Amino acid sequence: MVPRRLLSCFGRGSNSKAKNPTASDHHATTHDQTTEEQRRGGAVVVELFSSQGCATSPEAELLISRLGRGDFKDELDVPIILLSFHVDYWDYMGWKDPFGSSQWTVRQKGYIEALKLDTMFTPQVVIQGTTQCVGTDQDAVLSNIRSAPRYPSPTLQATFERPSADTLQVSLTGPLRTKIDSRGVEIMVALYENGLVTDCPKGENKGRVLANDYVVRKFEKLCTVKDISAKKSINGTVNFTLWEGFNSSKCGVAVFLQNSSLQTFGAQNFQLPENL
C-alpha cells in the first residue's frame, strides 16, 4: 500500500510540475494503418491517471473525452493517443473504482520515480512519458502535448482474433520506423474501452453519474527489441482475457514503444472492428 501521506487529489487550482463473442466462433480481422496522420508526424501518447474515488478526476476525464472528440483541433494540430489508467489507492475512501487496478498504480509510481516527483496524485496526465501536469489544467495539458517530442508512428499490421469466447488475440507485424539502439525498448499493447457510464452511490463522487472513455482494461508487453533498424519488421502476439460485457465496437488497441525510463518513442492506434 502506498503511504497515504504521499497521496493527493488535485483540483484545477493545484499545481505539480515534473522535475523533468462464443467459444466455437473464430473471428479474424486485419488492419493496416498508413494514414496521413503518420505521414505528417507521429502521435503523442497522453496517459491519465484517474480514480472514480477522487472528487476532481471526473473533470479530467471530461477533458480526455473532449480531446478524443477533437474539441481542441484549432488549438492542437497534433495526433494523440489517449489512455486512462484508473488507480486503486482511493478505494478506501468509500467507493471501489470498478476499473481500478494495482497494476496501474504501479505504473504511475514508475512515472513518479522517473520524473523525480515527491507525490502520487490524481488526476495526473503524463505526456510521452517525459512531462506531466495536473489533469484538470487544460492549458498545461494542451501545452505539454504541443511541445512533446514526436517520433514516427510504427506501420504495424494488426490481426484480431477470438480463439475463445473470453479471449482476444492481437497479432502485430511490421516496421517500427524508429531505430532502436542497444539499450532497447519494450513494445507495449493496451486494450481500452470507451463509453463507460457508472452510477456512483458512495465515496467522494456520491450521487454522480460518471462517464469514462479510453479506459485501459488490459495491458501487456508484446516483446523487447534492441539493436534493430527503423525498417526491420518485428512480429508478436498478445492474448487478452476479456471481461463480461465486452463489446469490440467500444474498444481500441494502442501500441507504443517505451524505454526503461518510461519515455515513449512512437505509437500507433487501432479501432477494433464491430462484431469481432
Automatic annotation (TrEMBL):
- Bias regions of kind Polar residues — which residues? 13-23
- The organism named in the record is Papaver somniferum
UniProt region (Disordered), positions on chain: 11-38
Query: PANTHER family, alphabetically?
Result: LIPOPROTEIN LIPID ATTACHMENT SITE-LIKE PROTEIN, PUTATIVE (DUF1223)-RELATED (PTHR36057:SF1), PTHR36057
Give start-end positions of Basic and acidic residues composition bias: 24-38
Origin superkingdom? Eukaryota
One Pfam family it belongs to: DUF1223
What protein name is recorded for this chain? Thioredoxin-like fold domain-containing protein
InterPro entries per the UniProt record, alphabetical: DUF1223, Thioredoxin-like_sf
